[in-house]
Amino acid sequence: MSDAHSQALAAALRLNPRHDLPEVMQAATQHLWLHASPWQALTTRSDRRLLVSGHGCTVVDAHGKTYLDALSGLWLVNVGHGRQAIAEAMAQQARTLAYASASRATTLPAIQLATLLAELAPGDLSTVLLSSGGSEAVESALKITRQYHTLRGESERYKVISRRGSYHGATYGAMSVSGAPQSVDPYYSPLVPGGLTVSAPYCYRCDYRKTYPSCDVYCVEAIEDLLIYENPRTVAAVIAEPISAACGVVVPPPEYLPRLRDICDRHGVLLIFDEIITGFGRTGKMFAAEHWDVVPDIMTLAKGLSSGYAPIAATVCRTAIARQFDSAQEHALAHLLTFGGQAVACAAALANVQILIQEDLVANAAAQGQYLLTRLHELATRHPTVGDVRGLGLLCALELVQDRRSKEPFVAEGPESRRLLDILAELGMLTRADTNLYLAPPLCIQRHEVEQLIAMVDAGLTQFEHECAYL
Ligand SMILES: Cc1ncc(COP(=O)(O)O)c(C=O)c1O
């Protein structure tokens, strides 16, 4: 090794927040670019921080302050922090064989994981393509969809319908089927062609100015109207989160998803459920689709699949889709991701799902989530900035408004929501806020921690409203 290389290595490994925190922060500011952030955000933005450890529902920052992790990192640490069993499973697999290949060979943990997901997934969702993150799972779903239609002789099907306000990932294909307003993403046009959007089933602010149930769930009929207008034979898929976190934890009316399934079936359009946030117990069922008994054609999974212990994702397909990629006819999927099915990540996911099942965390999410939601509804009556309370299981949001009667919103990620996050962090709680305050703690949360969370939200909103001169 050259001297320069040795010095570079020594300088990097010397960084240690316990010995010299300012030096670590200086290095981070110079060299580490946080996602969705200006370059030096770690030191210039109060809502960015260096975390050093975690246990259960709590994390500790470099100053030694402990926080309740009310967003499970980024909606994903479902089994909680500091799980030794996952660390050990990963170490064991890394010692044995860390990597085989994504296309020419595989490993036992990849086979075991695919088998487990096929067993857990609803209906005949049984063929599993592994990748490393949610965006890749969505890209894979889109490419499988396009190739599936082409192999069946319907190559003209290329359009994909998504809901406005939804988020399906950061890569180009996933972005192109996400429902961000054009004004929000001004840098990346033109997107991949074929992305169409419809309004979400967002009853608090219905785009059609209708009210449930007298609306007869017009928002799902609007999807069929759009399909017919566009010519159904050009539409490949509808992609939707069963409960959209990005739209503000929008829980659809009971009829919405069964009717969407029916519409897709009648027009030969595939239905993709993005369960990247909602999967693995988050909503009080293993997969949110189970609340409505609807089986999509393709389901995308990531986040809670490993609870963040390793980057891993899955695209799970129904048998009829996999069958089109027929060995006899050499119909290979034209898609290869090097880290797909990486053995250590698969071992982490297996150990993670084992904890979910053995500790019955899905049932805990249902029970604690129901309690949390009830308490949030009570709390909302005391806080004029809370316009609406939504959620299912441990996926909840409080919609923040300047005025409850006019429903005038705050600016998304504007100074108010940042101030609220600062207040909550001072009180010992980390989460995320835009026009909503999101609450999605780890599924291992216990009743006393739910009480702590509610007490902090209550105190935080009181201080926030006082500062905003609401009281
Ligand atoms: C519903 C949904 N789909 C896809 C993604 C993209 O996942 P990733 O960030 O792992 O690429 C996200 C990320 O938050 C998501 O919430």
Explain what you see:
It is globular and about 65 Å long. Strand 11 and strand 12 form a beta hairpin. The chain has two domains: 21-79 and 361-467, Aspartate Aminotransferase, domain 1, CATH 3.90.1150.10; 86-358, Aspartate Aminotransferase, domain 2 (3-Layer(aba) Sandwich), CATH 3.40.640.10. The protein is an alpha/beta fold. The protein is 39% helix and 16% strand. The longest helix has 22 residues, at 361-382. The site of pyridoxal-5'-phosphate has 14 residues, from helix 7.
Question: What would you say about this model in short?
Answer:
The chain has 471 residues and is α/β, with parallel strands linked by helices. It folds into two domains: 21-79 and 361-467, Aspartate Aminotransferase, domain 1 (Alpha-Beta Complex), CATH 3.90.1150.10; 86-358, Aspartate Aminotransferase, domain 2 (3-Layer(aba) Sandwich). Helix content is 39%, strand content 16%.
Keywords, please?
5-stranded antiparallel sheet; 16 strands; Aspartate Aminotransferase, domain 2; alpha/beta; binds pyridoxal-5'-phosphate; 471 residues; Aspartate Aminotransferase, domain 1
Topology summary:
Elements: H1 3-14, H2 21-31, H3 41-44, E1 51-55, E2 58-61, E3 66-69, H4 72-75, H5 84-96, H6 108-120, E4 125-131, H7 134-151, E5 159-163, H8 172-176, E6 195-198, H9 218-230, E7 235-240, H10 256-267, E8 270-274, E9 298-301, E10 313-318, H11 319-323, H12 343-358, H13 361-382, E11 386-392, E12 395-403, E13 408-409, H14 415-427, E14 429-430, E15 432-433, E16 436-439, H15 447-467
Parallel strand pairs: 3-14, 5-6, 5-7, 7-8, 8-9
Antiparallel strand pairs: 1-2, 2-3, 4-10, 9-10, 11-12, 12-13, 12-16, 15-16
Helix pairs in contact: 5-12, 6-12, 9-10, 13-15, 14-15
